[in-house]
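Ligand-bound model needed. zinc ion.
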Amino acid sequence: MCTNIGATGASVRGGSKVYFGSVSDDPYDIRTRVIVEREEGGYAFVGTDLVPLEANGSAAAYRDSVSGAPTRGLNERGLGFTWALAFERPENTPPDGALKPHDLWRRVMREGESVGDALAILEESPRDMGGLALIADRTGDLAQVEIGRRNIEVTDRRTRGAGGAMVNVNCWVSMQAADGVAAYGLDVPTTSNISRYESANARMSTVDGRIDLGTMRDMLCNHEHKEKFPGENTMLAGHGFSVCNHGTLHKPAFDTAEPCWGTVSAEIIDPVDGVFWYAYGWPCGETPASGDQMLQERSWGAFLGFPLDALPAGTYTTLTGELTHLAAQHFGHLKHLGPSRRIEPLVEAAE
Ligand SMILES: [Zn+2]
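Prediction:
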């Protein structure tokens, strides 16, 4: 479960860039790490790998569907993507040979140079995923696309010249009536979709025209509806109602049989400068309020920027929020957004 936000052109301060980002909401025992892939036969990319901490942890069907790399990414040509899961009607079975999300996105990263390329690859490929994606490239093009096993539809597409901003949550808008699960629609007030969708759009409106890395971070730290008990969420009990998602069932410890879901990392992608920004845990950096918000006490509360061109292949962060030795070796190339007091201990520990 995730929230995606994106803006280009006139919506962005100075008008020359495109930024898009996401909070990655998963059960707290399914985590992300930053990887760089450089393999023969395709473009290099930086992105996140989604990995369960335990082979027999929580949410088995979800885990088997979405685990792998990349789940967000930016390639060496400046093409990037992020996405959020959409619940698709069970009768929409995948075609033969259909690709799971990470295999589909890996193809996009390795083969695509532009938003147009990415959309063509997604349309042509047999798909075993339901989701909504934001895709952007170095020219400042930004597209919003609804992706299903049976259908695919581009719902918004802006050039840098035209400008514009867009938001995704875990529900289709255009394809919902034909292909979505009605109980999770934006018209159902007891799910965490409409609360995040309306709040993210409202925040976007207040900063439209002056969006930069700082406002992107602030929008991903949006806590509106955080106080509402996540146990009442009829889409997914334990997933919170705010963008920066502090899901909890108020249990003393994380329970794989009845997991709570929240923001395990946040990402901001800057295709123009070729930087993939990442924050482990909650981007707000708050401390957990409940024992079941496992590992969230390790939340960075700051972003590190990974410039793909300067980084060799490998794994840069761990599933428990540390920097790897490889990251420490290349730390001089990484960029910072947010309080440096949050980052310094990570570097010291990795050296
Ligand atoms: Zn937060």
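DSSP finds eight helices and 15 strands in the chain.
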